[in-house]
Design a protein that fits this description.
With about 475 residues, the chain is of the alpha+beta class. It is built from 19 helices and 17 strands. A hairpin with a 2-residue loop joins strand 11 and strand 12. It is flat, with a radius of gyration of 29 Å.
Length: about 475
């Protein structure tokens, strides 16, 4: 984790952290002593589940990052031997679960779930810093600061120091003890991604090239300075007069309607169709096993045609109250060389919230103009007992089949106006590695009907659909 922190900037760290919990959930897990290396999938060998022991057991023998002293200084408890505390500055090993501190914080939680909670809290606090998925990103009320302060202490004290010992770094100290002061005083933290400030150096370099150290003469510099000053003053005067420089040189509008700037769309029905679709016979679409029932779904014969497109534009509606924004829903077998089928959160006809994956974007049914999406349906399933991801707000999903004999998920035609927003859906890596081995991925396993029924997914509550602007305007 320290190497990742050293090599990632604030921007890359912020996006990577939203996926960390799901990756960690599949990389760590209880070792199954009864697992056999002969386990396979459709005759192909896969990694045994017991391989997870190789990732956990050696950690207890990892060397310490300190000077080798047998004592760790605790400002609250004094010098306490590492052996009596059971917690060192090395990576956490299986023996950490036997300590009193671990039981006080995590109770009977397994070690792999405790580490997963550490990463979930990291992603959650990072989202708070960037204003992810909140109604108003321009204000930071006192309740939010208190909640962030409590989450920071739970991350740094309860999770990080319980698992890794007393991590005496300046950044951890400032997050735990001084974050609330900085937020109340400035509304932001100390340093972050330096790429924004680095871009400002360009103007200083250009000023140096125009200085008398090199290049033009002093007279030319004075002429340029006078021209720049005159342009700035002219723009200030025009702004005070209520017109912009561009407006002063262009013809004035003839009526108030033309002068009014069009407001951004707030509903999907306000969007116009864009792009050219392709006509496709229903019989050709039915050749795909996943779309075998599309004819009956649309009520069209095989010789009827529809207009297919790769993208449908919607105005996303966020349940946390953020302003609506335009999103592109895609369903393409090849989009820039890779398949892209968007997961969606949509409203059913009875008003219930449902989930699914876009399989086909339609612009018309025959000559009837219609903007709709054919969706492979998903449904909620019960989470595992004590699931950490569920506790943080992620919902567990699986494919919805119309009957027990079907090999592919059921289909539903959803008008674009009923699509609420896109949804980031991640594989339940814990379930996948538990069933098929540690090194199984959706790309290297055979997708059979049985596997589609057994597959489990999670909605990504940490994904930043709306965030505070990284380039705020003045």
């Amino acid at each position: 984790m320290k190497d990742a922190q050293a090599t990632m900037t604030g921007r890359s760290w912020r996006h990577f952290s939203s996926y960390w919990p799901f990756i960690v959930a599949g990389a760590l897990g209880p070792a199954d002593a009864a697992a056999s290396s002969e386990s396979g999938m459709d005759g192909d060998d896969v990694a045994p589940v017991s391989s997870t022991l190789a990732l956990v057991a050696p950690l207890s023998h990892a060397g310490s990052d300190d000077d080798g002293s047998e004592f760790s200084h605790d400002p609250d408890a004094g010098d306490v031997p590492n052996q009596s505390r059971g917690i060192g500055s090395s990576l956490p090993g299986p023996n950490v679960v036997t300590t009193d501190r671990y039981r006080d914080v995590f109770g009977d939680m397994p070690l792999h779930d405790a580490i997963l909670e550490l990463f979930c809290r990291t992603a959650q606090l990072g989202g708070d810093f960037f204003g992810d998925n909140v109604a108003d990103t321009a204000v930071m009320p006192e309740e939010l600061i208190k909640r962030m302060d409590a989450r920071a202490k739970a991350l740094g004290v309860d999770c990080l120091q319980t698992l890794y010992g007393h991590t005496n770094t300046s950044k951890v100290h400032r997050i735990i003890h001084h974050m609330d002061e900085e937020l109340r005083g400035r509304g932001n933290l100390w340093e972050g991604d330096t790429s924004e400030n680095e871009k400002l150096h360009g103007s200083c370099k250009r000023m140096f090239r125009r200085s008398n150290k090199r290049g033009p003469t002093v007279a030319l510099q004075m002429m340029r300075c006078d021209e720049a000053q005159s342009a700035v003053l002219r723009e200030v005067v025009e702004a005070d007069a209520g017109c912009s420089p561009r407006a002063s040189t262009s013809a004035s509008p003839t009526n108030d309607d033309e002068a009014t700037i069009a407001a951004p769309p707030t509903l999907t029905e306000q969007l116009s169709f864009s792009g050219r679709g392709e006509r496709e016979f229903v019989g050709n679409l039915r050749l795909s096993p996943a779309l075998a029932k599309i004819g009956a779904l649309l009520g069209l014969a095989d010789n009827a045609w529809v207009t297919v497109h790769r993208t449908a534009r919607i105005v996303a509606r966020f349940e946390w109250g953020a302003p609506p924004t335009v999103q592109n829903v895609r369903a393409a077998a090849s989009f820039m060389g890779k398949p892209w089928f968007s997961f969606l959160r949509y409203e059913a006809r009875d008003g219930a919230v449902c989930w699914g994956r876009a399989r086909l974007v339609l612009r018309s049914l025959g000559r009837t103009r219609r903007s709709c999406v054919v969706i492979q349906r998903m449904r909620r399933v019960d989470a595992r007992p004590g699931c950490v991801l569920t506790r943080f707000g992620c919902m567990r999903l699986t494919w919805h089949f119309d009957s027990a004999a079907d090999e592919y998920p059921g289909l539903e035609v959803v008008d674009a106006t009923r699509i609420l927003r896109e949804e980031d859906v991640q594989v339940d890596w814990f379930d996948l590695s538990d069933r098929l081995g540690l090194f199984a991925t959706p790309a290297n396993k055979r997708i059979t009907a049985a596997e589609r029924r057994d597959a489990r997914y999670f909605t990504n509550v940490f994904y930043p659909w709306t965030s505070r602007s990284m380039r705020p305007g003045f």
